Amino acid sequence: MSNKIRWGVLGGGGDSLIGVLHRVAASMFDAYQLTGAVFNPDHETSKAFARQIGIPTDRIYSDHHEMIRLEMQLPEDERIQVVSVLTPNFLHFPMAKQLLENGFSVICEKPMTMTYAEALELEAIHQKSGAVFALTHTYTGYPMVRQMKQMIAQGVIGEIQKVDVQYYQGWINPIIHDPQLRKTTWRLDPEKSGISCCMGDIGVHGYQMLEFVTGLEVKSILADLNHLYEDNQMDIDGTVLLRFDGAAKGVLRASQIATAEENNFSVAVYGKSGSLKWEQENPNYLYLLTEDKPLQTLKPGHSYNDKMSLDGTKLPPGHPEGIFDAMGNIYKGVAKAVRNQPYEAGEFPGMRDGVRGMHFIEEAVASHANGNVWTDL
């Protein structure tokens, strides 16, 4: 009998980019077997996609309720163990909730829920379930992001003074200026996306990243968001000032109307004795700056890197790794947790990241709505 983890998927069918990303990531370390799915709300479309990618259709279900009900009727050693939730935002909470209540481990796309209240409820359910929960803040899987985290923890750049996170995209720019087109994307529909578009979609990545690499927690924020048009309720651009404990401060800049930008995500952390910079579009380079030495460039796969960075490196030095590899590292960490194998804190984002992310989104919107005021987290 295969010792692979039996894996299910909700969403991610057809030409979904996110579906391909998850399927490739799950296949990387030979840890998962795609066992059952609901790829599409239409059952026949789901089965057709299953045949297209070469998996049996006997466990392609009509919806997640049927998946859970029928899987629970199977012997435990045949039942799906982990389910990935790859649907639009408004379905994350009800699906993850029902899965956790029935003992399934969950890998969930972000944002975790539609509201902070839902996030707290899901956290309580997770604590009772004994299951593994992972949130796919994919960028934490890059080896040089993990190296950055370890170097900061080791005091390489000294006490943190300033954090600067930027996430600039331009994808919504051709849509937002057309009154009809801006009604066609679910990300601008608060009933499907939640109260925020830009901060909920990409700003929360920056927020999670800065807490991940620094080990600090944001204590208060001041947000200035932009909607461009009165008939658009959702932010598509914004800047958030950040305060941590002590003297450290930061800024988070996110935009979906940064014309012609693709996926310009970067993080810089400035300490008393040095700084570290990383850019998603050039993910294999981590830059270390100090006042007494020339710029140093660290790359993945070398022995000078930390254990967690090396564990997430699949190829020899000089062979670029990218977003599929980063997601694969998250799936690898989840596999260790499901199998009760030792794993390092930080190998996959979890429930805490989701709860804090939803709190950040809601308070950023509130800070802007209340006149750009400081708001405690």
TrEMBL record:
Pfam families: GFO_IDH_MocA, GFO_IDH_MocA_C3. InterPro entries: Gfo/Idh/MocA-like_OxRdtase_N (IPR000683), Gfo/Idh/MocA_oxidoreduct (IPR051317), GFO_IDH_MocA-like_dom (IPR055170), NAD(P)-bd_dom_sf (IPR036291). Residues 6-136 form the Gfo/Idh/MocA-like oxidoreductase N-terminal domain. Residues 145-276 form the GFO/IDH/MocA-like oxidoreductase domain. GO terms for molecular function: nucleotide binding. This is Oxidoreductase.
